[in-house]
Task: inverse folding
């Protein structure tokens, strides 16, 4: 019941301050662009759009949300309420995830391409949750929106740009410093070794290794097992602990 109340409160706040209106506009623009693209481009562009802007909303807007709640003394009220920090964070993940899900599914639905909507929805929610948690983590260390932008923009560039450029065909030895790229190169090299019949991936770090581009790249390798595990328990514990200290 407490979680439901927080989620509804977050949704009302996001609606009041134009989050839904903004992403309705963005979604309509993206759909219009996709409808006029040539068929060979649509699949790549649709996937890129869905797993970029809608999924990244939590990272991009969490600073503003947290700063607003700090200015309205929401954090102080929560600190003396029976609501736990776990519930507070989960409500943010779910409410932001709903915007990501609505935008992403509508883009996919009207793009004219066939999709597995169950897998798509799960991917969108997981991606949105990941970046929302990163946004909350960054917000714990800032006091102004300028501070958040100074932290958020480099984080976004480091997370997304190298792997995006790499999947477009550009390769450089320096890019191997990026964990996802080095992991792809390592997996593909192992895949070519004769005698190895099965490759199982485990203990991937979600903030570094869990990328849509990584999934698409390794899905083409026949020796890869059709499942892998992510480490999330310790990561979430560290994020929660950091935000408890700030509150």
Result:
């Amino acid at each position: 019941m407490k979680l439901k109340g927080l989620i509804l409160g977050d949704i009302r706040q996001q609606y009041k301050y134009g989050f839904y209106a903004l992403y309705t506009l963005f979604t309509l623009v993206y759909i219009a662009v996709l409808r006029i693209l040539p068929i060979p481009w649509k699949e790549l562009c649709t996937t890129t759009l869905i797993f970029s802007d809608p999924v990244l909303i939590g990272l991009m807007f969490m600073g503003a949300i947290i700063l607003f709640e700090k200015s309205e003394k929401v954090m102080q009220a929560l600190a003396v309420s029976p609501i736990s920090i776990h519930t507070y964070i989960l409500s943010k993940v779910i409410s932001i995830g709903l915007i990501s899900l609505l935008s992403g599914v509508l883009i996919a639905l009207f793009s004219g391409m066939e999709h597995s909507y169950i897998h798509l929805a799960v991917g969108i929610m997981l991606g949105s949750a990941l970046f929302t948690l990163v946004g909350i983590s960054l917000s714990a260390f800032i006091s102004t929106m300028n501070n958040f932008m100074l932290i958020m923009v480099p984080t976004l560039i480091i997370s997304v740009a190298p792997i995006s450029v790499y999947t477009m065909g550009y390769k450089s030895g320096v890019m191997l410093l990026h964990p996802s790229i080095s992991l792809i190169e390592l997996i593909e090299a192992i895949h070519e070794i004769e005698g190895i019949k099965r490759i199982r991936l485990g203990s991937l770090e979600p903030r570094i290794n869990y990328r849509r581009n990584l999934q698409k790249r390794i899905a083409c390798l026949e020796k890869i097992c059709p499942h892998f595990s992510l480490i999330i328990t310790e990561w979430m514990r560290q994020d929660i602990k950091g935000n408890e200290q700030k509150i």
Q: What stands out?
A: The two ends are 22 Å apart (CA to CA). The chain has a mean pLDDT of 76. The CA atoms of residues 219 and 226 lie 8 Å apart. The first strand starts at residue 199 and ends at 204.
